[in-house]
Specification:
By secondary structure, the chain is an alpha/beta fold. The chain has one domain: Vaccinia Virus protein VP39 (Rossmann fold, 3-Layer(aba) Sandwich), CATH 3.40.50.150. The chain has eight helices and eight strands, in the order αβαβαβαβαβαβαβαβ. Strands 1-4-3-2-5-6-8-7 form an eight-stranded mixed beta sheet, sandwiched between helices. Helix 4 links the parallel strand 3 and strand 4. It is globular, with a radius of gyration of 16 Å. It binds S-adenosylmethionine (SAM). S-adenosylmethionine binds next to strand 3, helix 5 and helix 8.
Length: 212
């Protein structure tokens, strides 16, 4: 961790940090200080893309969650330097956050950009985007909420497409039922850049939480 990241964590965690301890349901209006829509981003890494998206859309609150401490410091520092008031940083497991700390129908969107691909077959069960995860996420998302995933690992992209397509709580925004063109609002992420350097193909998926 750099000195700047450590300093940002120390200074800004009390103001903008959320400890994911599974002990309470979070009042999102209180956390952000307003009732603007809230999008959950799982696994923001170093947070550069998160900060860019927050700056481009100040009317949307981003609850950004990761377990990676230097990244948390980096995102807090970026938010501070860019005067972003719409980012809060969660430390811990996104599953616990969803299951224990977010109320039903509390989220206006979900972003999962370049989740760990777990390429080995015996590790596939560790992948985040699975039917059980989608069922949990669906309970926390408002009807009409967008779920946006991206990956540079093609077998995982196929698995995501299959799981989302098969899930009754989600519908594809793409008329042909396939991957989505990368929306302009998603900046290139750090992990994506590394994948592109290796010649990987990036796929975006844009699904909607259906009406109940
Ligand atoms: C491959 S990195 C991608 C980071 C970033 N989105 C990017 O594209 O550069 C995946 C990130 O997800 C985080 N992560 C994995 N599982 C998680 C979980 N259950 N809860 C929160 N973060 C998680 C990891 O710590 C890591 O930072």
């Amino acid at each position: 961790m750099t000195a700047g990241q450590a300093d940002a964590l120390q200074r800004l965690w009390p103001k903008w940090g959320l400890d994911i301890d599974g002990q309470r349901v979070v009042d999102l209006g209180e956390l952000f200080g307003n009732d603007n829509p809230v999008v959950l981003e799982i696994g923001f890494g170093m947070g550069e893309a998160t900060a860019q998206m927050a700056a481009a859309d100040p009317g949307t609150n981003i609850l950004a969650v990761d377990v990676h401490t230097p990244g948390q410091g980096n995102l807090l520092s970026l938010a501070d330097r860019n005067g972003l008031n719409n980012v809060r940083v969660g430390n811990g497991d996104a599953i616990i956050l969803l299951r224990e700390m977010l109320a039903p129908d509390s989220l206006d969107g979900l972003r999962v950009y370049f989740p760990d691909p777990w390429p080995k077959k015996r590790h596939h069960k560790r992948r985040l985007i699975q039917p059980e995860f989608l069922s949990l996420a669906a309970t926390r998302l408002k009807p009409g909420a967008l779920v946006h995933c991206a990956t540079d690992w093609e077998p995982y992209a196929e698995q995501m497409l299959e799981a989302l397509t098969a899930h009754p709580d989600f519908e594809n925004t793409q008329a042909d039922g396939g991957f989505a063109p990368r929306p302009q609002f998603r900046p290139l992420t750090r992990f994506e850049g590394q994948g592109l350097d290796k010649g990987h193909v990036v796929n975006d998926l844009l699904f909607r939480r259906v009406e109940r």
